[in-house]
Structures are given as structure tokens and as C-alpha cells.
Specification:
The complex is a heterodimer of chains A (206) and B (649). Chain A has a 3-stranded antiparallel beta sheet with strand order 4-6-5. A two-stranded antiparallel ribbon of chain A has the order 1-2. Chain A folds into 2 domains: 37 residues; 165 residues, no CATH class. Helix content of chain A is 42%, strand content 9%. With 206 residues, chain A is mostly helical. Chain B is mainly α and 649 residues long. In chain B, 57% of the residues lie in helices and 3% in strands. Chain B has a two-stranded antiparallel sheet. Chain B has a two-stranded antiparallel sheet with strand order 4-5. In chain B, β1 and β2 form a beta hairpin. In chain B, 62% of the residues are buried. Classes of the chains: A mainly alpha (206), B mainly alpha (649). At the A-B interface, α1, β2, α3, α4 and β3 of A face α1, α2, α3, α5 and α6 of B.
């Protein structure tokens, strides 16, 4: 009635079959897809410079910039996550801007989306009340979002074109080339892979 | 918005297509018939029975079935607890980050082992900063398989209760679990695991990869055997992620193709089981009428969530942030959502994951608009019977079907019948017991944690607070006056002696020994563990206990849950939510199986038509969700009104 033996043995069987054999078997299967299995890493001049799937931070004007990130101190790929701030959170909207007693920025300071929108407009030479794409000023769920929206990329294109002495038309071609379209034309949203786009800029369009 | 609706419909069409073939297959599996895979799996199955030392022909009465279920859950939970605490002692290749017991204290190990055993997969911790590869694989992922198989077994045994006549047994627990695992979970996982790897989900034992980015910064990219855990996490409606960001992490869910695969895997088995049920009780129409009730609730939730998130908030509009979607941008409320998923694929995922007891997330529910965030809570409060968890959805909805026919019987003054079985006092008592225990659990713990009296802040945090002084009142430690009256700063070091705080401000719900380390007294109040103020903060607490008791596992993740108070109370909620549901239902199954079949007469309330479907939907909403209406009013509903008035908190 107590059925202790089957309970113990079944636990052991699950450990062996599904805790060990299954992941090992799937790792064997994964050898058929070496790039994907190891995180879709991309190389430049023989050196790994990132993963095609994982966003990384860009701040220089000659690069396209990713979305703001809440992963660690920004694009920390060992510490994924979002802000988890609610829709009417004052911190999310207006941010926190405090000074410590000795005049330094308080470590708890945080840019709200109004701050981010203002910075985005200034950086890209937009009017102060111009509409900005939602993805440009909100933080993603993972904090590692590799993409920005095409609208966001197009706005940034004029800044990048200026910094690289290219035409916006040339950049539009590159943006299009590095856009992942909707799956079957229906699922999800078209999205521009920032790292691949910037890499393409570095590799060819100098 | 239009594309969002199309996504919902196409996805749902896929689910409808798979329901019949998968349902038929599962019926054959659980009745022990030959299937396509029998030549390969039969010998393995027989070997398992031999090792288990059971007689596969034995038909167990419900009591023995329940004991087997409890013993297996108990033993495997103890194993996981021990394996987590001892995670330092595994080969280095499985522990590249050198994690040990410090990362997983006893209260967290309890919470986590309860969480995975009960198919909840609530994660109080950040996996990539806490767990070794071995812990993910051996301690946790085994429950992704086991808890799903247990869920299916319980559902099938309840169906047998309806299908059998004057029978003393409801099946054999060990046989049901073995068959569900080997014939259903394993083959689907191998196929879709391979597909996921090909589509970009990593599967390796590499240490975190350190790279230099294009701008020259250092980035450490967490790695691991992700795909093998990812596939069963979705198929078993478990939801426990390999990474903190769960299915929003580009490694867990790299594209809209994998996203569709994940959505499909969540609903596949629960949908199929409705057909299995219809087939086993001899009328597939019975299965489809349950399926229809689930569909109504699913579609309603998906559409409400989509439109709320696409509309965004007036605060976003006022800041001149585009909320209109176009071919070049998603618009809407993109906080906590990924660009590739946009609004449509995020809200669909949020709906599906909380309809089923999955709990994986591809967007952060905490940042949803109030109504968008209400949908997941509502879905979980239905008892997760909108397709629901693997097995758990079917046994949950059958419990409501029993209540529905009982209510119909009360209206016309007849003894209610369902599927040819008279529904009598015992059955209704068992169904109501499960419903009420869950409600009591969610509401009691939510009220308790939203209260100021339960302390939960660490000593260091409390010390900092006393020293800064200003925030003491906010934290509910005590009023400022009391604090300064009892503790004064050392004039030299400017440090406070925290131990001089009045006893009332460090009163602790749990005796220090309950979490092992007597120096870990916790200060401050549990309600301060929220990441947001006001109604949304209350929503975080309500969401947590709803998710735990419903065995969902998703979260308004801003809640700092990794403290003794939350780990213990959430762990208890999960155990109550799982076993106080399963045991009454197994008792019901046993009682039903013993009954004779009463053929339908002119006065029998038909349960395979649209009237019954609507009655079932109404029962689910009235019996369950209305129980929580006052709590919901204090959370998302108030927050929605505040949002409309442009208030912030």
C-alpha cells in the first residue's frame, strides 16, 4: 500500500532517462547544428564579437543604437530581465533624478521613458514634440532584445549616415537586408537586427 | 490589431487540427493499445515495470492510486530539495560558474522543489545566477516530465471514473505515468527539441562565453543545455525557464517561428485530452462541448489582452510615444516586450500561458496595462481550465462540469447526472472542497502579505533604513518617532545598533529556525517587497499567490519573492493548489467508478450541446472569478481608473 519502492525507483528512472540521457542525446543531435547549438556566435576578423541572437550595447553615433535595457547595467547577457515597472509607475514614466549630499548622481537614478524620448529626439535631431517609436524608449522583456523596429532604424539612419558620410538611401538598403520579417507574413513584427546591421556597416560600407 | 487577430485565429486553427489525432493517440496509449511506437517502447515500458516492482495488470482503487501519486511526488520532491542544496558537488563541466548551497538557501530550495513538483515552476531566483547545469537538468527538468505525466494520469483516472460502471478501480498510477511519459511526452519532445535547436535554441555544456563587443565592451553570454529543457518546459505546461527572462530571452525563444512552436506545444496535449475524454466516455460530442467552453474563454481573453496592450496608456500618448501599429513599428505598450514579438505575439503568449498552467512568459506581465494584466490573473483564477495544464486542465474543467450540472439540477429540482452517472452529495462536496480551499489559500496569503505586520527585510537593509531614517515609515518598520526613540546612531561611526529596535518591529512570522540560520532575522514588512507602489503593488502580491495556488508559475516579476516569507507561503500555496485539488478529484473518480450507469431519459439535462457549453462558461466565471472580485477591484481595476485619470504612483 505504501508503494515506497516504485516511488524511489521511478524517481531514479526519471533522473537517468530525463535528467541525464535526454539532454545528452539532444546534445548529440545538436552536433548537426553546430552554430545554433553554441549560441549563434558571430565572428569578425576571426574573433567572436557577439551572438546574432543577443543584443549588445552601442552608444557611438556611427552605430545604430539598440533599445534601452534593464539587464544588469545594460545588455548583461548573464543577467536577463525587464524593469517590471507597472504602466503608471512614476519611475517608469518620469524616472528618478536625485543628487547625493556631495552633489553626485544617486546610484538609484533611473531614466523614465520621457527622459529616454527626450534624449532620443536630441540625438537624432528630431523636434522636441516629435513622435518616437515605442520600442525606442521602452525596455524589452529580456533586456537582451537584439532588434529594433524598422521605424526606429530609419530615424537613426540620418544620424548614422552623417557620422559615416553615407547616404540615407545606402543605409535603407542595409536596414532592409538585416530585417527579420514576420514569420509567414503574419506572426510577430518585422525587426531589424542591430548587431548584424552594425557589423555590415563596419565590414562594407566604410 | 488585425494581424494580431489573425495570429490568434491561425494559431487556434492549428490547435483544433491536432486535437483529434493527438486525442485518439492518447486514448490508445492510456488504454494500453498498440501504437506506432510500441515496437520500440514496449520493451522499455516492461523494463520500467520490472524495476518498479509493480504488477502492471493491477487495477488500483482510488485510495491506492492517490497514495502512489503522493509517494512519487513526495520522494521526487525530497530528491530535488537535496540535489539543489548539494549542487556544489557535481563535476566541473556541469557547474562552470561554481555555484553551491549559498546560492540556494533552504527556504529557496523548499520553494523551488515544491514549485517544480507541482508543475508550477515558479522561480523565486534568477536561474543563470543560481543554478548549475546539473541542477537544471537533474533536479528540475525531471519534474517537467514527471509532473506533466502525473497530471495526465490523474485526468485519465477521473475520466475512467465516468466511463466505468460498478468498478472498484480507477487504473494503475505507475502504469499511467510510465505510458504518458514514454509514449506521449518523449517522442514529441525529441521531434520538437530538434526543431528548436535547428531554429537557434542553444544546446551545449559550454561555460558562459565572454566576448568583446563591436564597441569593445565585455559581454558575458550565459550558455547551457537550453533546448532539451525548453521543449519539455512548454509541452509539459511547466514554464520554468533556463534563463531569468524565460521565453522572452532570445536563446529560449529566438524567433516568431519558435514562438509559434512554443504556443502550440502549450495547448497541444490539453486540447487533445478533451478528445481523449470524449472518446473514453463514448461520445466525442461531450469532449467537444468542453472544448467549446474553453475556446470561448480563450478567445475572449486573447482579444481583450491584445486590444488593451495595443491601445497603450494615455501616459505614453502624452509623452508623444507612438502607440499606433504600422508595418514598420509595433506601437502599443512595448515596455517589457520584445521587438520581434511586438504586441500580438506577446499578448497571445500571455493569454495562452495563463489559460494553460504553463507560466512561461515571452513578455513581462508586470509591465502590462491594467486590463492587459488583468487577463492573465483572470485566466489563472478560472482554476486554469481554459485548456489548462497537461491533465490538470481536463480534471479541473470536469470538476466545474460537475458543479454546472449540479446547479442545473437545482434549478429544475432533479438529481443531476453527468455522462450517465448520478452526481450526488459526495461528488459535489469534493468539487466544492477543491474550489474553496484554493480560494481560501489565495486570498488568505494575499491579505497576509499585503499587511504591514509581517517582517521580511534583511538586517542590512533594515540597518540602512534606520540610518537614513527617512524611509522608516514607508517600510512599515515603525513610525519615525518610535525608531529614533529606541535607536540612536553611534556618534563616532554613525552606525545604528539594529538589535535595539523595539521587538514589535522585528517580529517575525517564521521562527528563525524555520529557515535554518538563526542569525537571519528579517525586518520590515512583506508588503514592501513589491516593485511598484499602490494598486499595482497589491496586484503583484495577488498575482503571486494566484499563480502559485493555480500552479501556473508566471509572475508580476517585480515582486522580490526570494525571502523566507514569500518562499515558504508561496511553496505552501503550490502544494495546497496541487494536492488539495487532485486528492478530492481522485476520491470523486473512485466514487463515480463504483456507480451504475443511468441511461439518459427525457428529463436528463443534455451535456453535449451549446446550452451546456454556456452553462459551463457561466459556472466557471461565477463560482471562481467572482470569488476574487473584491481583490481584483483593489488591484488592476483601481489601477485602470487611476491610469485614465493620468495619475502616477
Amino acid at each position: 500500500m505504501l508503494q515506497l519502492r516504485p516511488a524511489i525507483v521511478l524517481t531514479a528512472l526519471f533522473v537517468v532517462f530525463f535528467g541525464i540521457l535526454f539532454p545528452v542525446f539532444m546534445t548529440g543531435v545538436a552536433q548537426a547544428f553546430p552554430s545554433q547549438a553554441h549560441g549563434s556566435l558571430i565572428k569578425k576578423d576571426g574573433k567572436v564579437i557577439g551572438s546574432a541572437l543577443i543584443g549588445q550595447n552601442f552608444t557611438r553615433p556611427e552605430y545604430f543604437h539598440p533599445r534601452p535595457s534593464a539587464a544588469g547595467s545594460g545588455y548583461d547577457a548573464n543577467n536577463s530581465g525587464g524593469t517590471n515597472l507597472g504602466p503608471i509607475s512614476d519611475k517608469l514614466i518620469n524616472g528618478i533624478h536625485k543628487k547625493t549630499a556631495d552633489g553626485k548622481d544617486d546610484p538609484s537614478n533611473f531614466d523614465g521613458y520621457r527622459d529616454l524620448a527626450k534624449a532620443y529626439r536630441i540625438e537624432n535631431g528630431l523636434a522636441l514634440d516629435a513622435d518616437v517609436p515605442a520600442d525606442a524608449v521602452t525596455r524589452s522583456a529580456s533586456g537582451l532584445d537584439p532588434h529594433i523596429s524598422p521605424a526606429n532604424a530609419l530615424i537613426q539612419a540620418s544620424r548614422v549616415a552623417k557620422a559615416r558620410h553615407l547616404t540615407v538611401g545606402q543605409l535603407k538598403v542595409l536596414i532592409e537586408k538585416n530585417t527579420d520579417s514576420r514569420f509567414l507574413g503574419m506572426f510577430g513584427e518585422p525587426a531589424v537586427n542591430v548587431l548584424k546591421l552594425n557589423l555590415a556597416l563596419d565590414n562594407g560600407a566604410q | 490589431m488585425v494581424l494580431g487577430l489573425i495570429q490568434i485565429l491561425i494559431f487556434f486553427a492549428l490547435v483544433i487540427v491536432v486535437t483529434k489525432p493527438l486525442g485518439l493517440y492518447m486514448k490508445r496509449v492510456f488504454e494500453g493499445d498498440r501504437t506506432l511506437l510500441s515496437p520500440v517502447l514496449r520493451p522499455v515500458e516492461n523494463l520500467w515495470y520490472k524495476l518498479l516492482g509493480i504488477n502492471a495488470e493491477e487495477d488500483q482503487p482510488w485510495t491506492k492510486y492517490a497514495v502512489g501519486m503522493l509517494m512519487f511526488s513526495g520522494v521526487s520532491m525530497l530528491f530535488t530539495y537535496a540535489a539543489l542544496r548539494l549542487q556544489a558537488f557535481v563535476p566541473a563541466i556541469l557547474n562552470p560558474q561554481k555555484y553551491g548551497a549559498d546560492q540556494i538557501p533552504s527556504h529557496l530550495a523548499f520553494n523551488t522543489s515544491a514549485s517544480f513538483t507541482t508543475n508550477t515552476n515558479w522561480q523565486s531566483y534568477s536561474p543563470e545566477a543560481t543554478l548549475t547545469y546539473a541542477s537544471n537538468m537533474i533536479a528540475l527538468a525531471i519534474h517537467n516530465w514527471a509532473s506533466a505525466a502525473v497530471g495526465m494520469a490523474v485526468a485519465i483516472s477521473l475520466v475512467r471514473g465516468f466511463a466505468r460502471r460498478k468498478a472498484s478501480g480507477i487504473g494503475n498510477f505507475w502504469v499511467d505515468v510510465t505510458r504518458g511519459t514514454l509514449y506521449v511526452l518523449l517522442p514529441i519532445s525529441v521531434v520538437f527539441g530538434t526543431i528548436m535547436i535547428a531554429a537557434g535554441v542553444p544546446q551545449n555544456f559550454d561555460a558562459p562565453t565572454v566576448i568583446k563587443t563591436l564597441e569593445g565592451a565585455t559581454q558575458t553570454i550565459a550558455m547551457g543545455p537550453v533546448a532539451s529543457q525548453e521543449v519539455i518546459k512548454m509541452l509539459g505546461t511547466n514554464g520554468g525557464g533556463f534563463f531569468n527572462a524565460n521565453s522572452s530571452h532570445p536563446f529560449e525563444n529566438p524567433s516568431n517561428f519558435t514562438n509559434l512552436v512554443q504556443l502550440f506545444l502549450i495547448f497541444a496535449i490539453p486540447a487533445g485530452l478533451t478528445y481523449t475524454f470524449g472518446k473514453m466516455v463514448g461520445s466525442v460530442k461531450q469532449g467537444w462541448s468542453v472544448f467549446a467552453a474553453m475556446s470561448i474563454l480563450f478567445l475572449a481573453g486573447a482579444v481583450v489582452s491584445l486590444s488593451a496592450e495595443q491601445a497603450g496608456t494615455p501616459q505614453l500618448a502624452a509623452a508623444h510615444i507612438s502607440t499606433a501599429s504600422s508595418d514598420t513599428q509595433p506601437g502599443g505598450n512595448m515596455e517589457g516586450k520584445e521587438t520581434r514579438f511586438g504586441i500580438g505575439a506577446s499578448t497571445l503568449f500571455a493569454t495562452v500561458t495563463t489559460d494553460a498552467s504553463c507560466g512561461a512568459v515571452n513578455s513581462m506581465h508586470d509591465s502590462f496595462t491594467p486590463i492587459g494584466g488583468l487577463v492573465p490573473i483572470f485566466n489563472m483564477l478560472t482554476g486554469e481550465v481554459i485548456f489548462g495544464g497537461v491533465g490538470a486542465g481536463l480534471y479541473g474543467v470536469l470538476m466545474f462540469a460537475v458543479i454546472a450540472v449540479f446547479i442545473a439540477g437545482q434549478m429544475v429540482g432533479r438529481t443531476p447526472e453527468y455522462l450517465g452517472k448520478k452526481i450526488e452529495r459526495f461528488e459535489v462536496q469534493m468539487a466544492m472542497l477543491a474550489t474553496l480551499v484554493l480560494a481560501a489559500c489565495v486570498l488568505f496569503f494575499t491579505a497576509m502579505s499585503a499587511n504591514t505586520f509581517y517582517s521580511n527585510t534583511s538586517k542590512e537593509q533594515a540597518q540602512a533604513l534606520v540610518e537614513s531614517g527617512a524611509k522608516a515609515a514607508d517600510l512599515g518598520l515603525a513610525t519615525r518617532n518610535q525608531m529614533s526613540a529606541s535607536v540612536s546612531l553611534d556618534p563616532k561611526t554613525q552606525k545604528a545598533d539594529i538589535d535595539k529596535l523595539p521587538a514589535s518591529s522585528r517580529w517575525n512570522l517564521w521562527p528563525a529556525t524555520a529557515y535554518g540560520n538563526s542569525t537571519d532575522t528579517y525586518y520590515g514588512s512583506t508588503r514592501n517587497n513589491v516593485n511598484n507602489g499602490g494598486a499595482h503593488g497589491f496586484g503583484e502580491i495577488l498575482y503571486a499567490y494566484t499563480s502559485a495556488a493555480g500552479n501556473n508559475g508566471s509572475a508580476f516579476a517585480g515582486l522580490t519573492a526570494n525571502t523566507p516569507h514569500y518562499n515558504l507561503t508561496l511553496g505552501i500555496s503550490m502544494l495546497v493548489g496541487r494536492f488539495m485539488m487532485i486528492i478530492p478529484l481522485l476520491a470523486m473518480a473512485g466514487s463515480l467508478a463504483k456507480k451504475k450507469f443511468s441511461p439518459a431519459s427525457a428529463g436528463t439535462f443534455p451535456t453535449d450541446d451549446a446550452t451546456f457549453t454556456l452553462l459551463l462558461v457561466g459556472t466557471i466565471i461565477i463560482v471562481n472569478v467572482l470569488t476574487y472580485f473584491p481583490a481584483l477591484s483593489l488591484g488592476p481595476i483601481v489601477e485602470h481608473l487611476q491610469m485614465q485619470q493620468m495619475k502616477t504612483q
